[in-house]
């Protein structure tokens, strides 16, 4: 029992392996989530209707010129949020990959 | 010395290398434990030998020998316990359904207890299994069957026995096979867990073919000729005394000797005799003997399995083989079924000493007790007894084998191969690999025959001629699986979240401050409820940048930790399933 078996060594190697993020994939995923999220949130307010539809969400126009809480705005918002999400996702993955493994010396 | 898989393969390799050889076999048949016995046209196997190897050279040799007679057969085997069938390998839902609510709760509680308070030392099999699967599951699915097989309490079986089998498992390959099946020639085929190779007329067909091909190559296999004396000068073996069927002993000389005789029997044949401590070590080695009661049942189908493990403690049979499911040509009449009831015994005990009639009656009675056949359905039957079928890994075997090995390896021209030759729980492919290496040593190469089954890929890696080229630059499935089970670095994800999150807040604030027009700052400033001191101003942007970092890094850290926890749990579940399926069958080695 004293010798380390191949399986034990393999288990240690797997646990020691540090996962890396593929920046392109993360950018696409975060971008799609962000874009879809904003589009759905916009459409939800439009469908609910009311006197002052989406007064707070509409403030996003300061970041996304042309964005409004409307059906058309949902598409505009999708484009902006997807692009911003992609940038944020890519940056997060890039920073993660720069630091991954440093803390454990791997 | 010995015409089992190791001896015949060694002879075949010697023939391939252009060397001459003679094989002496004490019994009237070739194949050793891997022979096929025939009774009135019903063929049966001693233990059930699946042909499966991780060594491509061995697989190729099998196929070369048998060609179209090397069948690929579906596998089905189940566990019979307490009147119910359980899938093998065990599946959690099937097992829990079969055990019932109360027993399932006991199993679960026992498993949790074993995780909280495991045995600190894993010296024996009982501790090894209990630590992994819980005491209750051990009692139900391991204890009875394992003790039937070995005839000694699980607390006296070395944990090495289980560990040796587990350590050879390739986790990533097992996952790959489970996900993709095995690939051969680019075609995905069902994993050999579900299918296996088997000679059309049983395993003996393979070794009879080896014998015939050896004869064609000019190498004789002399039957009924036990080696009874091994003469030596302390450094080299000079000759062996072989007793022929007429009882006359004659000397056979050779340059080199390869023995697959039981190591304990070999040292007793040494002339001059070895020191007493060597004889004591030989006497201390234990073996498990085996007998098969073959029942011929007048029914086309008794059960669909190749074999069934009998865990029920109320019968003594350990396993039941259904030979026609191994190959349809194992029975001469497709309307009948031949069942092989396997009893694990010690030579001289009550079962070993019982008459064939008594054993046939016991077998029929036990089959009826288990509900597998009706009383009176058995039309005929026979009994086969096998000595030294399994080397026993008890608490002291390792020390005794080391003593014997050190002494016997002192003879420069004597090599030990085979299951009993090395007192090691070899499968037949391991024995064959050791035979090949021994033959190559005779031809001048330098291999360690004891490394086979310790380093599973030894044969392949040393010879190098079977290695297949791999494409460069494209990750293998193993590499992809390894990365699938890789862990996220919580610190790095924390840093990434902190830097990107805080920068985003700073930029969002700055973007507002740079824009003339409506006052939107109050809305963004609401974040000040969470980020102390934050407001929509340049000073607030800096404060927000600093304040957001610990929050964001905490989120990143926790997210990575949570993912790692799930990945680790998933990985350990898969490992456990693999370990369970191996540890459940003490005879996995004999199956091959």
Describe it.
The complex is a heterodimer of chains A (106) and B (592). Chain A is mainly alpha-helical. Chain A has one domain. Helix content of chain A is 62%, strand content 0%. The longest helix of chain A has 29 residues, at 71-99. The radius of gyration of chain A is 22 Å and the shape is elongated. In chain A, 30% of the residues are buried. Mean pLDDT of chain A is 83; it is low at 1-6. By secondary structure, chain B is α+β, with helices and mostly antiparallel strands. In chain B, strand 5 and strand 6 form a beta hairpin. The longest helix of chain B has 46 residues, at 538-583. The relative contact order of chain B is 0.15. The chains are: A mainly alpha (106), B alpha+beta (592). The interface between A and B is medium-sized, with 32 and 38 residues.
Short description:
Chain A is built from three helices and no strands. Chain A is mainly alpha-helical and 106 residues long.
Topology diagram in text:
The complex is a heterodimer of chains A (106) and B (592).
Chain A: H1 6-16, H2 23-48, H3 71-99
Helix pairs in contact in A: 2-3
Chain B: H1 5-16, E1 22-24, E2 36-39, E3 42-45, H2 56-66, E4 70-74, E5 77-81, E6 84-87, H3 92-99, H4 101-116, H5 125-133, H6 135-150, H7 159-167, H8 171-180, E7 182-184, E8 187-189, E9 195-199, H9 203-216, E10 220-222, E11 227-232, E12 237-243, E13 249-253, E14 257-259, H10 263-269, E15 270-271, H11 276-284, E16 287-297, E17 307-310, E18 319-322, H12 323-326, E19 337-345, H13 350-353, H14 356-369, E20 378-391, H15 397-408, E21 414-416, H16 428-442, H17 458-463, H18 477-484, H19 490-513, H20 521-525, H21 538-583
């Amino acid at each position: 029992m004293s010798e380390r078996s191949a399986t034990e060594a393999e288990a240690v190697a797997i646990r020691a392996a540090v996962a890396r993020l593929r920046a392109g994939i993360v950018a696409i995923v975060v971008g799609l989530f962000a874009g879809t999220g904003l589009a759905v949130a916009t459409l939800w307010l439009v469908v609910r209707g009311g006197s002052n539809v989406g007064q707070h969400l509409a403030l996003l126009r300061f970041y996304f010129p042309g964005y409004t809480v409307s059906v058309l705005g949902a598409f505009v918002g999708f484009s902006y949020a997807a692009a911003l999400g992609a940038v944020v996702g890519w940056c997060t993955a890039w920073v993660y990959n720069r630091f991954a493994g440093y803390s454990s010396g791997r | 010395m010995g015409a089992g898989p190791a001896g015949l393969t060694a002879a075949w390799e010697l023939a391939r290398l252009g060397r001459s050889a003679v094989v002496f076999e004490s019994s009237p048949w070739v194949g050793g434990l891997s022979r096929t016995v025939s009774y009135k046209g019903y063929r049966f196997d001693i233990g059930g030998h699946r042909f499966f190897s991780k060594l491509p050279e061995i697989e190729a040799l099998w196929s070369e020998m048998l060609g179209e007679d090397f069948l690929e057969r579906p596998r089905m085997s189940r566990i019979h316990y307490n009147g119910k069938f359980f899938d093998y390998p065990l599946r959690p839902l099937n097992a829990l359904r079969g055990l019932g609510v109360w027993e399932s709760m006991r199993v679960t509680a026992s498993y949790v207890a074993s995780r909280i308070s495991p045995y600190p030392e894993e010296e024996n099999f009982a501790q090894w299994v209990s630590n992994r699967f819980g005491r209750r599951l051990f009692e139900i699915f391991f204890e009875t069957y394992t003790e039937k097989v070995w005839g000694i309490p699980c607390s006296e079986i070395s944990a090495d026995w289980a560990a040796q089998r587990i350590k050879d498992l390739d986790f990533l390959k097992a996952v790959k096979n489970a996900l993709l099946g095995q690939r051969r020639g680019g075609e995905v085929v069902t994993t050999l867990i579900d299918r296996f190779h088997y000679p059309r007329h049983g395993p003996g067909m393979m070794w009879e073919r080896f014998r015939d091909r050896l004869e064609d190559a000019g190498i004789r296999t002399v039957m009924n000729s036990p080696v009874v004396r091994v003469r030596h000068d302390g450094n080299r073996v000079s000759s062996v005394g072989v007793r022929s069927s007429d009882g006359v002993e004659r000397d056979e000389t050779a340059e080199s000797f390869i023995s697959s005789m039981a190591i304990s029997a070999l040292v007793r044949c040494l002339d001059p005799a070895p020191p007493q401590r060597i004889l004591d070590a030989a006497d201390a080695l234990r073996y498990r003997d085996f007998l098969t009661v073959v029942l011929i049942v007048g029914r086309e189908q008794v059960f669909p399995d190749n074999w069934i493990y009998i865990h029920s403690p109320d019968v003594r049979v350990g396993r039941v083989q259904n030979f026609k499911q191994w190959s349809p040509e194992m029975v001469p009449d497709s309307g009948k079924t031949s069942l092989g009831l396997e009893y694990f015994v010690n030579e001289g005990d009550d079962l070993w000493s019982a008459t064939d009639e008594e054993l046939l009656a016991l077998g029929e009675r036990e089959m009826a007790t288990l509900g597998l056949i009706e009383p009176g359905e058995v039309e005929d039957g026979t009994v086969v007894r096998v000595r030294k079928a399994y080397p026993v890994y008890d608490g002291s075997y390792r020390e005794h084998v080391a003593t014997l090995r050190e002494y016997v390896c002192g003879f420069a021209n004597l090599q030990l191969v085979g299951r009993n030759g090395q007192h090691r729980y070899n499968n037949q492919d391991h024995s064959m690999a050791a035979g090949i290496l021994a033959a190559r040593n005779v031809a001048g190469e330098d291999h360690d025959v004891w490394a086979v089954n310790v380093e599973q890929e030894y044969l392949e890696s040393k010879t190098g001629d079977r290695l297949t080229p791999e494409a460069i630059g494209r990750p293998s499935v193993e590499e992809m699986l390894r990365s699938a089970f890789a862990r996220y670095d919580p610190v790095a994800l924390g840093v990434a979240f902190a830097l990107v999150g805080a920068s985003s807040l700073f930029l969002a604030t700055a973007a507002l401050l740079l824009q003339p027009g409506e006052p939107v700052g109050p809305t963004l400033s609401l974040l000040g409820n969470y980020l102390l001191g934050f407001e929509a101003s340049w000073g607030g942007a800096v404060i927000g940048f600093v304040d957001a970092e610990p929050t964001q890094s905490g989120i990143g850290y926790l997210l990575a930790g949570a993912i790692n926890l799930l990945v680790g749990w998933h990985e350990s579940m898969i490992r456990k399933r693999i370990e369970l399926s191996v540890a459940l069958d003490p005879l996995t080695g004999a199956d091959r």
